[in-house]
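Hey, can you fold this one?
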Amino acid sequence: MPRLPPGFLKKTQDFEEQVEEGATRYILEGTGSCTPAGEPGIELEPGTLLECRAPTTLSWKVATPLVILTPQFEQGKIFAGFALALFGG
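Sure. Predicted structure:
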């Protein structure tokens, strides 16, 4: 399996993660659901953007392998380049 660049996660099994206020996650590939602690679950598909308004625990359920962009991806020119490519800029 090819190695993903920093800022990308590939998940094939259910997992949990602690996130800080302002954390974002963008689903590039796959399906499943994500449930922030104390909130209803969110169905995931490619193009889903999650923005956390407060520190929380995210519980992820993976239906098909997920490729997720993480905060490390948002740093520097990588994010700007991706946004331009994604949105046709």
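The first strand starts at residue 8 and ends at 11. Let me know if you want another pass with a different chain boundary.
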